[in-house]
Amino acid sequence: AAAAATTPAKPEKPFFGFYIAKEDIDGWTYLRLVRAGREQAGAYEAAEAARRADMLARASGFSEVLRAMRDSGKPAVGHNCMFDIAYILASFATGPTALPTRWADYKALCAAWFRGGIYDTKHLARALLPDLLPDTSLGAVFGALTQEGPALEGARALASELSQHLGMPVPVPRVVHAPGFTKYVDVAAGGAAHEAGYDAYMTGAAFACLAPLAHAAVVRAERGGSAADGAAAAGAAAAGEGAGAAPLSSASAMDVDDSEGPKPDQAAPGTTAPNGAGSAASLGSADWDAVAHYEPLDFVKRYVGRLNLSRSDMAYAALWGSDPPVTRDNVLHVWLDAPGGNGGGAGSTPRVMDVIRRLQAAGAPGRPKVTVLPLAGPLSLGGVLVEVETGCPPPEVLQAALQRAAAEGGGGYGGGGPRSAGPSPLPSPLTSPGGASTGSQAGAPPTDPATASAAPSYSGPVWRVQSYAAYSDA
């Protein structure tokens, strides 16, 4: 029985006294039969296999780097890197398929490829140190934290407070170059920006400095201060005025908020600092030995996967855990209803500049931000979404003012007339969060502030203004 269970040996490949060689001549590929012995043919086949493996490795390119990063579990650090991450994954991680169309699937893809987590230095600077770092461009952040000046003094004051809180020195890292690597030594901050190596150097240096400052800013905020207090605090400490200062938060610097951490089926990013974490930056201080027992990533683990979003009302995009809550009480839906309409159908789209000018004339402060809605898809409403500043009049007041302006000076269509949409998928009437109706009933309403305020002779389109916060989850 044991003999019967033994796997039979694979028969030896037959050898016919030659091997087949490929030759490329003048753009044509030829097959040539070469007479050879078994050993010669075996050596040729081994050399060909090695050549094909080398070609495959060369063709893989950066994919090999991305795989090495994934397998190492080391964190990735970028600056304003939302698009960069998507582009890297689309180019090297998805194969012939496109990026996922669902946000949850995209987050899972990021967790699979960036097992050590992703940190965005622009988000850290904007969210935690807006007073200390008003300019969050990469060159400005790097220069502020590595060159002498008010920002660096404030950073040192923050680090000093954190040192008192932890009971051990936590200086701001001073990044130096290894012997023989002098290309960037005398380059002014941002002087070689957009050169890949230099941008990576600035990003890494900024992150090394931001890591301890991130938690220091949090605990200072908990006691009612701000990062702008840094330089003043440093001067007060030097003058001996800091003895009676309020203590920092009693929460440990190593505490992290796990409520938005990775899902159970995802590797926990950033839980282990890279090997030799202390070698990434030279502190220029004898205090390093006292600091080396904590892991710098412990200060920023709560911010893992939070990427900066430009031109968005979301504070950040969360690649791990739950997305930040967004309140859109300051967003309006503005559209043009058909003459005599009651607001229950889909609207037409007015010209963007008409919307801006007329809302400003109606009392909307600042310059409203306008986004044209598509005529197809989940939000096939027509019209525009408008983000207004605090202090804007309520929708019903704006609607009446817009309609009066339309009656006096035209409907506000653009170019060749309005764009019409199909039936609206969202309910009407719509109500504001406080419960007051800001739209029209499906039937004839008792009072329509838009039509009631228009001149009797006006027969053009009806302007409608609705609070976007009144919409359902759709």
TrEMBL record:
InterPro entries: CAF1_poly(A)_ribonucleases (IPR051181), RNase_CAF1 (IPR006941), RNaseH-like_sf (IPR012337), RNaseH_sf (IPR036397)
Pfam family for this entry, one: CAF1
Biased composition (Low complexity): 267-280, 431-458
GO molecular function: 3'-5'-RNA exonuclease activity; RNA binding
Segments of skewed composition (Gly residues): 408-419
Gene3D superfamilies: Ribonuclease H-like superfamily/Ribonuclease H (3.30.420.10)
Chain residue ranges for the region called Disordered: 248-280, 407-458
Family recorded in the similarity comment: Belongs to the CAF1 family.
Protein name listed in UniProt: Uncharacterized protein
Lineage: Eukaryota, Viridiplantae, Chlorophyta, core chlorophytes, Chlorophyceae
